[in-house]
Amino acid sequence: MEDEIGEEVHAKLMEGFGLETEPWAQERVGRTMERLNRVRLACAQPGACSHALTAEILWLQEANAFTLPGRYLYITRRLLERAASDEPVAFVLAHELAHHDLGHVRLLRPALERLGKTVGTAIGGLLRHAERLLYSPEQERAADAYALDLCLAAGYAPASCLTLFEILEAELLDSGDVSGVFGLDSPSALWEKLRGYPSLRDRKTALQTHLRTEYGTP
Questions:
Q1: Three-class SS of residue 57?
Q2: Percent of the chain with pLDDT over 90
Q3: Helices (H), 66-136
Q4: d(Cα 151, Cα 136) in Å, to the nearest integer?
Q5: Domain count of the chain?
Q6: Is 55 exposed, middle or buried (CB count within 10 Å of its CB: 0-12, 13-18, 19+)?
Q7: What is the residue range of 185's domain?
Q8: Measured at the alpha carbon of residue 180, what is the angle toward residues 176 and 183, in degrees to the nearest 5?
Q9: By the 8 A CB rule, do 50 and 41 touch?
Q10: The Peptidase M48 domain covers which part of the protein (predicted)?
C-alpha cells in the first residue's frame, strides 16, 4: 500500500517538477546514489533497507531534499547547483535514506492519502510542510547521525559532507529565517517540536561531536 501511495504522488511530482535534462545533474545524483546504496545494502546494521532507492531531481525554488514511502527520494536542482562537490549532496541524500531505513517515512502515509488528489504544482510544498510537522527533532538528529555514518562508510570526507549546512544556512538567512540557523537565545524543546528540526547550528555541532566521539576526528 505504501508503495502504491508513493507511486501516485511520485507521478504528480514528476509531472509538475521533474524537468531535469542536464547530464551533469543526473550523473551527479546517479553516481552518489549508487555509492550510497551499495554500502547501505551491504551493511548488517538493524533497520537497513533490503532494496535500493532512486533519487529524482525536482525544479523547486529552495535548496532542499525530502522523501516519501516507496522507492523514491527527491533533491532540488537549486541544491545541486549550490553544492561545490559530491559530499554535501551525498549527505543530504543519505539523510533522506535514513528516514527510510529508520522507519520514519511511515509517519507520512496518512498525509499522503489526503494529498493524493492534489495537483502536481502544489503538492511539493505541501509534502515538505507535512514532513516538518510529522518528523520529530529526535528523528531528524537520528537521521543526521545515520547519514554521516553512511557517508563515511561510503568513503566521503566528513568535513566536506558538513558543508551542506553552509548551503542551508545561506538559504535560510536569505529568506530571513535567522532562528532556523541559530535557534533561540534560550533553548526551547517546544520551538524545536513545532518547527520539526533543531537549528542548523545545533545539528552541525551535534554531528561534529559525533565525529569526535565515534571516529576520533578532531
A1: strand
A2: 55
A3: 77-82, 86-101, 109-115, 120-134
A4: 22
A5: 1
A6: buried
A7: 1-218
A8: 120
A9: yes
A10: 35-204
Supply angle C-alpha 56, 60, 61, rounded to 5.
150
pLDDT averaged over every residue in the chain: 86
Q: What is the DSSP string of 178-192?
A: HHHHH--SS--HHHH
Region 137-164: what's the mean pLDDT? 96
92 contacts 136 by C-beta, under 8 angstroms: no
Query: Which DSSP helix (H) or strand (E) runs through 65?
Result: strand 65-67
Residues 6+ away with beta carbon under 8 Å from 123? 9, 12, 13, 16, 115
Per-residue CA distances from 146 to 42, 129, 216 (Å):
15, 23, 17
Q: What are φ and ψ of residue 76, in 5° steps?
A: -85, 150
pTM (2 decimals)?
Answer: 0.89
Pairing verdict, β 72-76 and 65-67? antiparallel
| Cell output for 86 | 559530491
Grid coordinates representing 137 are 527533532
